[in-house]
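Colleagues,

For the teaching module next term, I've prepared a clean inverse folding example: a structure given as C-alpha cells, and then the sequence designed for it. I'd like students to try predicting residues themselves before seeing the answer, so please don't circulate the second half yet.
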C-alpha cells in the first residue's frame, strides 16, 4: 500500500490545508517520508457532517450486514499485517514482531465484535406486552432496546499504534454499536495510522456503506482536537493517554451547550501485593516475573505492573534480588517519542525528590531517547506520606515498597486512588488476609488478578479495562473487551407502537432470532 500522507475524509483523500509533518524514527533520530497532511476546523466539520449523514443508515444496519463489515476489516488487517508491523517499527523503534502480534489482536477484536453484533444481546431487547384486562388499570405495550449514540470521535493512543489506535478496540466497539467514527490520528505514528485507516476506508466502500462511516484527520497542536470535541454533531469521545490530556478533553466536553461523555483511560500504577505465605514460598519467582513484565516494551503500557508491595520477612530479599537482577540485565531502549522520554526523566526525578532510593539500574543509555531500566525502594511510611510515590511513571522503572506488617499493607492499599488493575499473590495460608484486602481493591479497580500479573490481558467477554478516577473518567465502563460496546449505546422505549413501525429486534415475529426479555423471562420465540 502506498502512503500518500493525506487525510481520509469519508471516501476521499484530502491534501494538507494547515501544514505538514514527517514521522520520526526515535531510534535513529531520522525523519521518515512522506510528508503527512495537517487539517483544521474545516476538515473536522466535513468529517463530522459526513458521519452525521451516515448515522441514520449505518445505525439501522441489521446484524448480518454490520457483522460482515467488521469481519471484512479484520480480514483486511490480516492481509497488511507485515506492512503495518514494519511501518510501526520504523515509527516507534520497537521490534516489528511485536506489532504483528498487535495487528492480530486488533483483527481478533473486530471478529469478536462481529459475533457480538450477530448475537444481538447488546441491544438488550425487552418486551412488556400489553395487558388490556389488567386491573385496576390496563398495561400498555412497552418495548425497549439500546440504540447507537451518534458520531464518535476517537483519539488514537501513542503507546499502541495499532490495537489502541486507528484500528483499535475503541473503533471496533463504536462501529459495532452502529456509530460512525472520526479518528484523530496520533502524530507519533502517522504512517501506521494511514495504513490502518485505508483498510477501514476501503472496507466501508466494499461493504456498500455510506462514506461517512469512517474518517481520519490529523492536526498540529490542540486546535484540531478541540474542534472535534466542540463539534455539535459529535455524541461521544474516547481518549487513551495522560491524566492531563484526558481531563482537558473531559472538561471541554462538559462546557459544551450540550455536554457529551468523554471515555478517557488515563493513569494507573497497577499495584501488586505479595502476601506473606506467597512471599515465603515464591519470592524469587514473583520478583523475576514482575521485573520482566514491568520492563516489557520499555515500560510503556497502561497495564505495566509498576509498584511491588511486600512485608519484610521470609522471601523479601529473594523478591528484591530477583527484581534487581531483571532490571540490571535489561538494556536501555528507545522510548516511543522524545516527549515520552523527557516525561520519564522528569517523573523519575520526581520520585527521587520524594525520597525513593535507587537500588538497581540497567546499562546506561546509548541513544538520546533511550529509557534506562531502574529499580527504586521505599518504605510503607514513605508511600503513605508522599502521594507522588503513588503516581504513574510511564517508562521502565519499578518501585519496591517494603512494608512492616499486614496492617500497614491494608493502610497503603487504601491510600491508592483508582487503578486499571490490582494484583494479589497468595497461598492458601493467605486466604483470610486476602479476603480482608479484596474489598479494599474492589473499591479501587475494575480488575483484580490473583497469582499472575497485570499483563498480559485477554480481550474477552468478561474483560474489564477500567476503574475509578483517575484510571478512567467513568468507572462504569470498560475500554477493552466485548462490554466496551456499552459506552456507545443508550436505551429507547417504544410504547404502543404498531408492529410494522417497531425496530426489527422488537417485532412480534422476532425476525433476527434474538434472545429477548419478554415479561421478565428470557425467550427466543
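(Answer key — instructors only)
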Amino acid at each position: 500500500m502506498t502512503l500518500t500522507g493525506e487525510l481520509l475524509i469519508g471516501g476521499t483523500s484530502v491534501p494538507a490545508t494547515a501544514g505538514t509533518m514527517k514521522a520520526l524514527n526515535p531510534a535513529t533520530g531520522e525523519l521518515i517520508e512522506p510528508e503527512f497532511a495537517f487539517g483544521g476546523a474545516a476538515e473536522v466539520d466535513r468529517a463530522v457532517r459526513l458521519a452525521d449523514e451516515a448515522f441514520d443508515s449505518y445505525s439501522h444496519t441489521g446484524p448480518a450486514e454490520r457483522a460482515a463489515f467488521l469481519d471484512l476489516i479484520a480480514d483486511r488487517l490480516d492481509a497488511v499485517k507485515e506492512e503495518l508491523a514494519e511501518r510501526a517499527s520504523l515509527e516507534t523503534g520497537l521490534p516489528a514482531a511485536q506489532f504483528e502480534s498487535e495487528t492480530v489482536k486488533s483483527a481478533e477484536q473486530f471478529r469478536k465484535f462481529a459475533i457480538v453484533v450477530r448475537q444481538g444481546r447488546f441491544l438488550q431487547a425487552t418486551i412488556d406486552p400489553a395487558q388490556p384486562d389488567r386491573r385496576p388499570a390496563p398495561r400498555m405495550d412497552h418495548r425497549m432496546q439500546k440504540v447507537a449514540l451518534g458520531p464518535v470521535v476517537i483519539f488514537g493512543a501513542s503507546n499502541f499504534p495499532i490495537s489502541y489506535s486507528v484500528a483499535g478496540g475503541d473503533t471496533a466497539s463504536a462501529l459495532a454499536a452502529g456509530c460512525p467514527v472520526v479518528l484523530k490520528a496520533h502524530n507519533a505514528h502517522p504512517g501506521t495510522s494511514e495504513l490502518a485507516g485505508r483498510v477501514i476506508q476501503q472496507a466501508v466502500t466494499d461493504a456498500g456503506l455510506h462514506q461517512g462511516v469512517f474518517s481520519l484527520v490529523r492536526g498540529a497542536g490542540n486546535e484540531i482536537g478541540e474542534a472535534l470535541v466542540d463539534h455539535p454533531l459529535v455524541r461521544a469521545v474516547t481518549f487513551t493517554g495522560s491524566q492531563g490530556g484526558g481531563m482537558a478533553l473531559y472538561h471541554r466536553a462538559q462546557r459544551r451547550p450540550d455536554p457529551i461523555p468523554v471515555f478517557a483511560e488515563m493513569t494507573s500504577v497497577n499495584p501488586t501485593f505479595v502476601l506473606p505465605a506467597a512471599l515465603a514460598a515464591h519470592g524469587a519467582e514473583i520478583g523475576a516475573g514482575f521485573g520482566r513484565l514491568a520492563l516489557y516494551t520499555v515500560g510503556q503500557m497502561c497495564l505495566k505492573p509498576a509498584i511491588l508491595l511486600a512485608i519484610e520477612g521470609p522471601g523479601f530479599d529473594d523478591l528484591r534480588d530477583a527484581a534487581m537482577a531483571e532490571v540490571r540485565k535489561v538494556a536501555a531502549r528507545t522510548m516511543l517519542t522524545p516527549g515520552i522520554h523527557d516525561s520519564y526523566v522528569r517523573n523519575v526525578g520526581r520520585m527521587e525528590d520524594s525520597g525513593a532510593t535507587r537500588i538497581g539500574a540497567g546499562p546506561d543509555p546509548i541513544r538520546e531517547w533511550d529509557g534506562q531500566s531502574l529499580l527504586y525502594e521505599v518504605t510503607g511510611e514513605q508511600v503513605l506520606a508522599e502521594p507522588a510515590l503513588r503516581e504513574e511513571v510511564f517508562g521502565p522503572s519499578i518501585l519496591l515498597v517494603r512494608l512492616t506488617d499486614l496492617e500497614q499493607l491494608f493502610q497503603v492499599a487504601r491510600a491508592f486512588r483508582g487503578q486499571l488493575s490490582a494484583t494479589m499473590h497468595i497461598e492458601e495460608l493467605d486466604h483470610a488476609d486476602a479476603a480482608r484486602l479484596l474489598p479494599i481493591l474492589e473499591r479501587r479497580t475494575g480488575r483484580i488478578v490473583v497469582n499472575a500479573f497485570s499483563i498480559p490481558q485477554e480481550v474477552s467477554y468478561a474483560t474489564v479495562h477500567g476503574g475509578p478516577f483517575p484510571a478512567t473518567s467513568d468507572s462504569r465502563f470498560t475500554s477493552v473487551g466485548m462490554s466496551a460496546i456499552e459506552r456507545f449505546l443508550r436505551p429507547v422505549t417504544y410504547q404502543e407502537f404498531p408492529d410494522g413501525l417497531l425496530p426489527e429486534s422488537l417485532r412480534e415475529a422476532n425476525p433476527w432470532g434474538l434472545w429477548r426479555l419478554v415479561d421478565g423471562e428470557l425467550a427466543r420465540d
